[in-house]
Amino acid sequence: MSLDKPYLDVPGTTIFDAEQSRKGYWLNQFCMSLMKSENRERFKANERAYLNEWQMTEAQKDAVIERDLNKCISLGGNIYFLAKIGATDGKSFQQMAGSMTGMTEEEYRDMMVRGGRSAEGNRYLGEDGDAQPQHQPQGKSHLGASKTP
Amino acid sequence: MARITSSVYTSHVPAIGAAIDLGKTQEPYWQPVFKGYEYSKKWLEQEKPDVIFLVYNDHATAFSLEVIPTFAIGTAERFKPADEGWGPRPVPVVQGHADLAAHISHSVIQDDFDLTIVNKMDVDHGLTVPLSLMCGQPKEWPCPVIPFAVNVVQYPVPSGNRCFELGRAIGRAIKSYPEDLNVQIWGTGGMSHQLQGPRAGLINKEFDNTFLDKLIADPKGLASVPHIDYVREAGSEGIELVMWLIARGAMNDVEGGKPPEVKHRFYHVPASNTAVGHLILENK
């Protein structure tokens, strides 16, 4: 019998389930290591060398170096673990969450102050809300103004 | 005998903790959030609970992917505030209540809920932010706290029904403790929020307020809401709300007593990425 995964048709959303967790085990454990300041220093001094100490795939290492959180999540990362990279970089949770939408920091903050993103059109793939694949990237961050390094 | 006097429900957004720690509570962005807890602080001072049983989730702090307990009860004498990557929050060490915690774990496991027993654990913002919201910045927390961590990070997380029934078992366990104690049970996390992907920033006021209505009046019906409804309607991290059902399951009306009195209700958007909800229910 196949497993029940009713969440695969939610747009712009990856549920961190047992399968994703298995894929992302070393990526997330690498993130966990950044809870220690000496590891943060070693990572910052030479990111690639530090990542090479972990049994991560090359795609996972590249996604970390590019700070592409959407890619990290598709490769098994979980946001609470990936937040340790943000903490190492001095980024807030809001900056991290916003970076996955394509909005600039200001655009994302303004959306939240206006009451957040509506669920309308964003419940099922195939609808027409702003989180749907056909509407990515949102906002202006791809124009380069405040793109994260 | 010990008794459960009240249940408290609140979001536990990390940015709220940072706003308190950095003295930003009077800034225009944060003022409305903290105003919603002014009543609650006074209420807690008057209530003087002997123990708080605090349901929360760990956010990849004490539990990495090495060990993922679905339900973990803290039975230690004390729990240190964790360093979550920004340094530990400047808040008091949490004193546990090892005797009551041991009693609850014994009773609840015999009641068919297989808890993980944790004798050493640091506690993250999931536990300390609710204490800060309800107590402000005291030198010591007002009473011992029993941390109860629920896995809501890796799917599948426990169902609403499972959480509600567990709450009932915890209620029975507390009421069978021989010492005369005033115990509160707190459920934390939520409300609607999503922290990941192009759908990050999702908020659903209608879902949240319906959730509050049903938590008060029809918790058993609310417990049957499936995970996927939380994900679709309240965002991938909105699933944290199942933890509120643990606290609600421990209230007297669930076992045929009188309905609880709603002492306080508050809702505000946003705190960082999240809708803040807060409720105080008193047993009558």
Given this structure, which CATH class of chain B is correct?
Answer: Alpha Beta
Shape of chain A: globular
Strand element count of chain B: 10
Distance between the termini of chain B: 17 Å
What does this molecule look like?
The complex is a heterodimer of chains A (149) and B (284). Chain A is built from 9 helices and no strands. Chain A has 149 residues and is mostly helical. Chain A folds into 2 domains: 16-89, Orthogonal Bundle (Protocatechuate 4,5-dioxygenase, Chain A), CATH 1.10.700.10; 91-149, no CATH class. Chain A is globular and about 45 Å long. In chain A, 40% of the residues are buried. The model of chain A has no long low-confidence stretch (mean pLDDT 93). Chain B is an alpha/beta fold and 284 residues long. Chain B has one domain: 3-Layer(aba) Sandwich (Protocatechuate 4,5-dioxygenase, Chain B), CATH 3.40.830. In chain B, the strands form 2 sheets. Chain B has an 8-stranded mixed beta sheet, sandwiched between helices. In chain B, α4 packs across α6. The longest helix of chain B has 16 residues, at 160-175. The mean pLDDT of chain B is 97.
List the helices and strands and how they pair.
The complex is a heterodimer of chains A (149) and B (284).
Chain A: H1 18-23, H2 25-33, H3 37-45, H4 47-51, H5 58-65, H6 69-74, H7 79-89, H8 93-99, H9 105-113
Helix pairs in contact in A: 2-7
Chain B: E1 3-10, H1 14-21, H2 31-35, H3 38-47, E2 51-56, E3 71-74, E4 78-79, E5 94-95, H4 98-110, E6 116-118, H5 125-135, E7 145-150, H6 160-175, E8 182-188, H7 205-217, H8 219-223, H9 227-234, H10 242-249, E9 261-271, E10 274-282
Parallel strand pairs in B: 1-8, 2-7, 2-8, 3-6
Antiparallel strand pairs in B: 1-10, 3-7, 4-5, 9-10
Helix pairs in contact in B: 1-5, 4-6, 6-10
